[in-house]
Amino acid sequence: MISVRDLERRYKRRDVHALRGVSFDVSAGERFGIVGESGSGKSTLVRLLAALDRPTAGTVSFQGQRIDSLPERKLRFLRREMQIVFQDPMGSLDPRMRVRDIVSEPLGRRSPERVAELLTAVGLPEDAAMRYPHQFSGGQRQRISIARALAPNPSVLIADEPVSALDVSVRAQILDLLARLVDEFSLTLIFVSHDLGVVRHVCDRVAVMRRGEIVEIGPVDQVYAAPEHEYTRELLAAAPNLRTELARLKGETDA
């Protein structure tokens, strides 16, 4: 589905080498995680995968076609096939638009039936369509963002830190929702996070990034159980366990 070869991105004005020789493949239907701390190159990589930026060197191919050097007018197919869910739903949703218009905007027309179908799919009531983003909680707004991303029937969903701004209890719900929707809509998922524990919750395979390079890549359970790189071990040590945190919150609530 996606093939990346020897990808580099340098920003001369800031004298930053954001990506260095990054290579990997993502198969159709796979749940691929990209994990690393702030400044590791995750966001730069996402922009290149979505053809929102151009690499300094290397190639990005989507379904066998190179996209790294295509002009925007030839990327319409990619804009349909690949959608992104961002970290901050309030920042990615127009506060002046009703939910029905937000969700149907990628379709180029208003489609009440499609909006109702998508709201149901993400666990929101149909009457949510007439409300505005500020009338929802953070978790509900992220559900709206997911519904909008699914509207044009993409084959690839990029989730860029989609739960880092949410409470722990809501985080688990959104992760479970994403996992279910990936199966239901036959999606290929690229999930970006700084938290290896969160990636383990939804991904099959993971690439660990540090300073613009992939230092380790493999099945999530293998990387989690027997990390080969010291940096991966550091990430694991720093990552809170989602299930443990939820159990702790439940205990405090019961008390």
UniProtKB/TrEMBL annotation:
ABC transporter domain location: 2-236
Gene Ontology BP annotations: transmembrane transport
Q: Name one GO molecular function term.
A: ATP hydrolysis activity
Which InterPro entries does this UniProt record tie to the protein? Answer: AAA+_ATPase, ABC_transp_ATP-bind, ABC_transporter-like_ATP-bd, ABC_transporter-like_CS, P-loop_NTPase
Q: What CDD domains does its record include?
A: ABC_NikE_OppD_transporters
Source organism, top-level taxon: Bacteria
Query: Which family is it part of?
Result: Belongs to the ABC transporter superfamily.
Naturally occurring in which organism (per UniProt): Amycolatopsis echigonensis
- Under which name does UniProt file this protein? Peptide/nickel transport system ATP-binding protein
Swiss-Prot/TrEMBL keywords: ATP-binding, Nucleotide-binding, Transport
